[in-house]
Write a structure and sequence with these properties.
homodimer, Stationary-phase Survival Protein Sure Homolog, Chain: A, alpha/beta, two-stranded antiparallel sheet, nine-stranded mixed β-sheet
């Protein structure tokens, strides 16, 4: 099994190292990831600049290819120019911080797996629900288990799995829940500040409300200590509304 | 009617000028847009840098607010920090080039309207299907008509309209089709080149195949000379597959 690994925290992040190491036990891993952090890039691709690719070493050994692009760029570039032959699986992560609810629209991590799915390759994104003192071991282990499971189970064309692992001790980690994407999103706002030169600037900041998450959703599952797996797809058509729209007089 | 206008081609693009001018006949327009081109940024937001806002003039008059952010940043910033009170409508465009099929995932134009919809405001994105010698007048006129129609018709919460206008003469422009999002995507690849310093770089390039577009889809409608309107929403859950997934043994 040939596995392509990417992320959005950058090739030198701890999460991708834990992930690539765990997946090496399941298949032949190629890492192609951004050279620095590219968080909240959404499903961006780089059209107006050339992309650069370098070799990255970790622990004194060749680890993977570092690119100047986004996670989606990395997956395109890996499949079309770097790897010999298509991978059998694309895995993106392990992200520092959950990717759940409507916020997955902003997620570079999910976007890496999306690009894999668009190119017809089984793909999943995996994130750990914490920003502090992360222990990636349980999530990395689960990624390897899921990669194994994908050897014998098929995903529909264009559908990927979005996995979130709660940051709890192994003893407290509950089993897998197959979930829907919550409709919750960050409640965000801007802090208006003045720089040392007297100029105004704005920082975005926000809070995630988990209190009102829908039963059966990713947000609820993670909150209750379950590993959440949401199958996601990219036909965004609101089919239910499409027929009502036909009655509009425009 | 208070209308927020944004785009991804930048505040000095011709498309946003035509759009804002046409919409000024329907309501009170506020323009908040990127200070330069931000194409293919997907639904990116800026977390790691502060955002700057300046005033932009066009034709010797104040035209709008130019920001250092993405289209999604612009809409957030407009609603939360720049405008007095929420807009009644968010319109993003007029984009140079269609936004249809799976490629809407990469679209900064659609992303501006997405942010509006996520914030609970009726929103639409509008694009003109050409990259050369654009005449935005028919598209701008249609945007004003659609804005009027949105005064009396309601969109479901979280659903926006993605509008594409073919670049044909008025005489050849056919009526509106309500469409689904095609599953077609760019067939892209990379050109590998060497820079003047002997270093390798990659440019992405691609082609859109319209030949095999699904009947009733956006790509087909535009190709046949119709104005295409696709209602899109952002619950990405693959509900059909979710129940099958329950049978997986992971």
């Amino acid at each position: 099994m040939k596995i392509l690994v990417t992320n959005d925290d950058g090739i030198y992040a701890d999460g991708i190292y834990a992930l690539a190491t765990a997946l090496a036990k399941v298949g032949e891993v190629t890492v192609v990831a951004p050279d620095t952090q590219r968080s909240a890039v959404g499903h961006a691709i780089t059209l107006t600049d050339p992309l650069r690719v370098g070799k990255a070493r970790r622990n004194k050994k060749f680890f993977g290819y570092a690119t100047s692009g986004t996670p989606a760029d990395c997956v395109k570039l890996a499949i079309k120019s770097i790897m010999k032959g298509k991978p059998d699986l694309v895995v993106s992560g392990i992200n520092l911080g959950a990717n759940s609810g409507m916020n997955i629209l902003y997620s570079g991590t999910v976007s890496g797996a999306t690009e894999g799915a668009l190119l017809g390759i089984p793909s999943f994104a995996i994130s750990l629900d914490t920003f502090v003192k992360p222990d990636f071991s349980a999530a990395a282990e689960f990624a390897a288990r899921l990669a194994q499971a994908l050897k014998k189970n098929r995903l529909p064309k264009g559908t990927l799995l979005n996995v979130n692992v709660p940051a709890v001790t192994r003893a407290r980690l509950k089993g897998v829940k197959f979930t829907s994407q919550s409709h919750e999103l960050f409640k965000d706002w801007f802090q208006k500040r003045t720089d040392p030169h007297g100029q105004t600037y704005y920082w975005m900041t926000g809070k995630f409300r988990t209190s009102s998450a829908e039963p059966g959703s990713d947000v609820e599952a993670i909150d209750k200590g379950h590993i959440s797996i949401t199958p996601i797809q990219f036909d965004l058509t609101d089919y239910k509304f499409l027929s009502e729209l036909e009655t509009w007089d425009i």
